[in-house]
Design a protein that fits this description.
alpha+beta; four-stranded antiparallel sheet
């Protein structure tokens, strides 16, 4: 098997990052789906509900995440987010319960500054949370998602 492309998604439902290599941890790839946006009730937000999440670019340099609105997207929805926003995710913040596909787990709040940036970028009140060391729901679903090209090509031929 040959891997053609490899992506990680540090913030669930935001744009992925193409990587040449990835460190594999017990949870899956390092930084993959470590963070997520949740609404005021603690429910995680997805692209299925809020397609603008796909316009948020994430880069990582020395454990610092930088957020920006993709250059290829221009809309009145994005207010005052010409500037990027950088922060270092923490595991020491306030612990809160969050709901992911109906399952409750505990996550760490990443603070008001990043929540304000997302609110301006998406016109959507939300908070960024980091999952604690145990990500059972993701590990059980699949810590590493692999798409095999040959079966997809055969499906397309039909």
């Amino acid at each position: 098997m040959k891997v053609k492309e490899l992506y990680i998604y540090p913030i669930k439902s935001c744009r992925g990052i193409s990587v040449q290599k990835a460190e594999v941890t017990p949870k899956g790839f390092l930084w993959d789906r470590e963070l997520m946006l949740v609404d005021s009730d603690g429910n995680f937000l997805t692209q299925r509900q809020y397609s603008l999440l796909a316009t948020i670019e994430v880069t990582i340099t020395n454990d610092i995440l930088t957020l920006s609105v993709g250059d290829d997207f221009s809309s009145q929805k994005h207010q005052d987010t010409n500037n990027s926003f950088s922060f270092k995710p923490t595991l020491n913040g306030k612990e809160v319960k969050v709901k992911i596909w109906g399952d409750l787990t505990v996550a760490i709040d990443q603070g008001d500054a990043v929540a304000d940036w997302f609110h301006k970028a998406l016109c959507l009140p939300s908070n960024l949370k980091r999952l604690r060391l145990v990500k059972l729901f993701l590990v059980l679903l699949s810590p590493v998602l692999v798409v095999l090209c040959q079966p997809l090509i055969k499906l397309q031929e039909k």
